[in-house]
Design goal:
This protein is of the alpha/beta class. It has helices at residues 4-19, 26-37, 53-61, 111-114, 156-161, 183-195, 212-226, 237-246, 249-255, 257-303, 308-326, 331-367, 371-414, 447-471, 480-561, 566-595, and strands at residues 41-47, 78-82, 87-92, 101-104, 128-133, 142-146, 170-176, 199-204, 231-234. It has a 9-stranded mixed sheet, sandwiched between helices. It is elongated. The two termini are 16 Å apart. Pfam families: Dynamin_N.
């Protein structure tokens, strides 16, 4: 739910920009208002395969929105958000947000499109499915995203999910109570802590495993040892759904969902609400400062005309600095362009270097074994290594992008005389997934094939040595032992040839998979950097334009003040002070916005 005071304040500021003929200042406010009235708070539900992610979402909203079964895996992200009536849509994204193709489907048929059984490998090429539900829990802007679990966190798709973390407001790692945290889960949590402001863990299926408290204790120990500060919420989705059906409050408490819902509402949603307040306050204060600058300059000259020369000189110098900020040769522009180019080169090199190392290790493992015999273990190891490398590369890219944004802001501020509003990056959703490593066809030598190969080799050997023996007066069958030996050698050579072919095919599969990962993960990182570049460029270019216009208006107002006659001067001074008082009142409301924080008025156990 949008903060009413913030929306009212933005509307007031928009009216002020119109009244004082500064439509150029309204663009930022319109973006602020759009964000306030569409306050999606995205929570990613992630985890290994078959850990209860979809059932957790169903239990949170008390509706069977995500398909759940022993043999069903989620293949397409499912976004669950608030709507007045129950609706479901399939979304295929185009080149822009406006060109996305949306297809309405009955909510009861969603499993046919988002599950691995109904849409294997996402052959329908869906970007995500969106479900709207009339639930109080979701009415505050909470959006739950059930991510695909095919292959788990150690898969290539798990690495692709990492790209959604910077745009998420929170991440819930789902793991059932059957066993303690695995290496991939701890690695994912460690990376998520660097990219997302809120990370928590959910221990599911406590109704199935009586020893879940021991697992919870072990998990907390793993988190402490890894230096991960994340809460753990043990829950039972089955108990939650049954309690909601029977309206049993004791069973609801036993399910453990009250603490989880309280966390989502009073920390995740409330934190997003605070960020909206701070951002709105910054924007309105900046607008108020620029609206009042010209009036203050004019008032200063009217009250003391002798200040005109010094004031105009100061304003002229300030305008020159503001105009310089708009030039492509300005320091912040150079820092941004050079920084993005350097990052693209460094991040691309880092990814290729990591994957080349994995490729060399994979080929060595293939040379030391028979791929047909160890493929399952090899594939698990390989996917884990690829996932770790891709995740580490993306985390590093995101951290470097944030560092670059701070550098650009610092260099822009060196030439600016205004307070810097907060920069907020747009969310782009989950990146495209990478298909798993495919097992090459294993050509094996059957018993019949061995016999036939041995006979061919033995027949030729026996015939050759037998003919030589006849020259020495021996019977032709004297070459039989040599034929047997050559037959055995032929079988061994054929087995060796087939093994070499299996190894070569496996290596080719590894190289193709690494090429695909390099392409997809590299594209995701470059897309993230380009979005960062565009948003930084547009943000600071707009600020520079606003500053230049405001200062030019101040210079003009100061010069016009000298032309005011004595009779009109007092009236103009009175009018200016009244207008400045109105603008100051708007600024005071903006400052009060960040100090007037009220808790979210939603019940923790509401569905």
């Amino acid at each position: 739910m949008a903060v009413p005071a913030a929306v009212e304040l933005v509307d007031l500021a928009l009216k002020a920009t119109t009244a004082y003929e500064r439509p150029d200042l309204g663009g930022r406010l319109l973006q602020t208002r759009k964000r306030l009235v569409d306050p999606d708070v995205r929570v990613l539900i992630v985890g290994e395969f078959k850990q209860g992610k979809s059932q957790l979402v169903n239990a949170l909203v008390n509706a069977p929105v995500c398909p759940v079964d022993d043999d069903i895996a989620t293949a397409v992200p499912t976004v669950v958000k608030y709507a007045e009536t129950t609706v479901a849509e399939l979304v295929r994204e185009g080149e822009s947000e406006d060109s996305a193709e949306r297809t309405a489907v009955p909510a009861t048929q969603l499993a046919q499109h988002v599950s691995e059984a109904g849409n294997p490998g996402n052959k329908a090429l869906l970007s995500y499915a969106e479900v709207g539900l009339p639930r109080k829990l979701l009415s505050g802007g909470l959006v739950l995203v059930d991510t695909p679990g095919v292959g788990g966190l150690g898969s290539a798709h798990g690495a692709a999910t990492m790209s959604a973390l910077p745009g998420a407001d929170a991440v819930l790692l789902v793991s059932d109570a059957a066993q303690e945290y695995t290496g991939p889960e701890l690695e994912f949590l460690n990376a998520a802590m660097k990219l997302c402001p809120n990370v928590a863990c959910v221990l599911t299926k406590t109704d199935l495993y009586p020893h879940w408290r021991r697992i919870e204790e072990l998990d907390r120990g793993h988190l402490r040892k890894a230096g991960i500060n994340a809460e753990i919420f043990p829950v039972s989705s089955v108990l939650r759904l049954h309690a909601a059906k029977e309206q049993d409050s004791e069973l609801m408490d036993e399910s453990g969902f009250k603490s989880l819902v309280d966390y989502l509402l009073h920390k995740v949603v409330a934190q997003s609400d605070d960020l909206d307040r701070r951002s709105t306050s910054h924007d309105v204060l900046s607008i108020a400062d620029q609206l009042s600058s010209g009036m203050k300059a004019e008032l200063s000259i009217l009250e003391d005309p002798e200040k005109v020369n010094g004031l105009v000189e100061d304003l002229t110098r300030a305008k020159a600095r503001a105009d310089e900020l708009k030039q492509r040769s300005s320091r912040w522009q150079i820092t941004l362009n050079d920084g993005v180019a350097d990052l693209q080169s460094d991040i691309g090199y880092d990814l290729r270097d990591r994957l080349r190392t994995i490729g060399r290790e994979a080929e060595q493992l293939i040379d030391d074994s028979d791929p047909a015999e160890v493929w399952e273990q090899f594939s698990d190891w390989f996917h884990q290594q690829i996932s770790s490398a891709a995740s580490a590369n993306f985390v590093w890219a995101a951290e470097r992008a944030r560092w670059l944004a701070a550098q650009v802001a610092e260099h822009f501020a060196e030439g600016a005389d205004i307070s810097m509003p907060e920069l907020r990056f747009d969310d782009e959703g989950i990146a495209g997934k990478v298909d798993p490593l495919t097992q090459p066809e294993a050509e094996k030598l059957t018993r019949g094939g061995q016999l036939l190969t041995g006979m061919k080799g033995g027949y030729g050997g026996m015939l050759m040595f037998g003919m030589l023996g006849t020259l020495a007066g021996l019977p032709i069958f004297a070459g039989a032992p040599a034929g047997v030996l050559l037959g055995i050698k032929a079988v061994r050579d054929e087995k060796k040839r087939m093994l070499q072919k299996r190894r070569a095919d496996a290596k080719n599969g590894v190289r193709k998979h690494i090429d695909e990962v390099t392409f997809q993960v590299g594209k995701d990182s470059n897309d993230m950097l380009r979005r960062t570049q565009r948003q930084l460029r547009d943000h600071f270019s707009a600020l520079a334009e606003e500053m230049s216009t405001s200062i030019a208006a101040s210079v003009q107002a100061a010069q016009n003040a000298l032309k005011t006659n004595t009779s009109g001067r007092e009236k103009r001074i009175k009018d200016l002070k009244a207008e400045l008082a109105r603008i100051d009142g708007m600024a005071q409301r903006a400052r009060a916005l960040v100090n007037d924080k009220r808790p979210t008025a939603l019940s923790g156990g509401a569905a």
